[in-house]
Amino acid sequence: MNGEPNMLDRDWRRSLAGAGCLVVMMQAASLFAGDASAVHVPFDSDGVQRAALEADSYRFSPTHLVVRAGQPVELVFTSLTWLVPHNVVIDDPRSGLTIRAEIPAGARMTVRFTPAVTGAFAIYCDKKLLFFESHREKGMEGVLEVR
Ligand SMILES: [Cu+2]
Asked: Is 117 in contact with 93 (CB distance < 8 Å)?
């Protein structure tokens, strides 16, 4: 009978250590996932950093693009929706990034620009139907990271 509380105590400590381990592993996994989801846009032979993106309801894919400053960028959007129109907006006039272009339903559309300033810029769809949430509010937003 004397040993029983001790055993419980040991088990309790072991499971606490296990939980701590799990938390650390989950944090490491989410950090890794953050890095893994960033797409480093490659240079094509013509010197343009060209990326293909999908526009669906309600998300862009990929969501995190990394490009080089001072070099031309071309983003080719393909709409996967049949009825819902989308758009692409980057609104940071201080950095010279003011982009607004329509992505008609089911269509392909290309945006060209040369980012001059480094930083992380929101890239989103601000379409909105009547009083409903905007597509951005529904999660149709990504990051353009200029390095
Ligand atoms: Cu949209």
From this structure: no
Helix (H) or strand (E) holding 64: strand 64-67
Structure tokens at 95: 């950095």
Spacing, Cα 127 to ligand 1 middle (Å): 5
Eight-state DSSP code of residue 43: B
In contact, 62 and 54? CB cutoff 8 Å: no
Q: What are 71-123's pLDDT values in tens digits? A: 999 999 999 999 999 999 999 999 999 999 999 999 999 999 999 999 999 99
Alpha helices in 1-147 (DSSP H): 3-37
The alpha carbon of 140 and the centre of ligand 1 are apart by a number of angstroms equal to: 6
Q: Could you say which DSSP state residue 93 is in?
A: G
CA of 23 to the centre of ligand 1 (A): 35
pLDDT tens digits, one per residue of 109-118 = 999 999 999 9
CATH architecture for the domain at 41-146:
Sandwich (2.60)
Residue 103: its H or E element:
strand 97-103
DSSP state at residue 134: B
